Amino acid sequence: MTRPLREQIVVVTGASSGIGRATAVLLGERGASVVLAARNRQALDEAAGETERAGGRALAVPTDVAEWKQVVELARAAVERFGRIDTWVNNAAISSYGTVEQMEVDEIQRLVQVNLMGQIHGMKAALAQMRSQGSGTIINVASALAERSVPLQAAYCATKHGVKGFTEALRLELEGDRVPVDVVLVMPSSINTPLFRHARSKIGVRPMPIPPVYEPRVVAEAISRLAERPQRQAVVGGAGKAMVIGQRLSPSLLDRYMLWRRQMVTQQMTQEPDDGVDNFDRPLPGRGSVEGDFGQNSKGTSLYTRYLELNPNAKRVALLAAALGLGAAFRKLAR
How many domains does the chain have? Predict the structure, then answer.
């Protein structure tokens, strides 16, 4: 039985900025006890303070998710402080921009170690505790790019595809053994977070999210909802859902759309020169933040996510209506 958020103990990785920080603070607003994990101690402490001021309890545990022993210690610290783990949110990630030829092998390995192995470490650490307590929810934050890759982000896309594959396999194993642990995959659209400011760039300029862009709070809302009412997966943002649908309907047509006037490359490039500073190997100093640099035209809500994606019954009705509409259109054309 899933607990209401005010009774939950939630672990959030990547909690010093972006989606993770927004999620931790929102969970605090709703009364949860939150264990925040990230590499930057100063930013982590700031985020923990915001979570407590919002109304929750908070514990900051500096953690590099790429290191298995540190993730095991994170789980131990959470249980030692609060007695259990109800929800574990795997969210920590780094990013890079460049062609496959430009990327060094050790850079690709680092991306895999953080983005994929980091989530695998979290899943295994959470699962051990959740099995013993007989309940729990694991929420893995991937990306719409887990369904469809784009140029300049080959390694990042590969890690997100890997997260999706690992999540699906784990879910099947648990369901087959009737283990009462839910495994949820969250696939955000482009989100206005500091990820792009912190990314390693080999394209000569600072990278940017593919428009349209949503605010981190939109994903945090989805995660908090899924912590109470788990479901198989959720795409956050209508733009990401459109990409997923396009990939399933016609990958080759989507290829041509992305290659038209090289738009999928140019849409990821700002006009500002890259400063050569990134958080690939070590965290950047500072207090951290939820938002990135692209909030001027970002969306503060997603009606699609709120009313359809997170409401499976309404989603089924909408899909049925769309299918009936298409069927009627085809019959009319046939006549």
Answer: 1
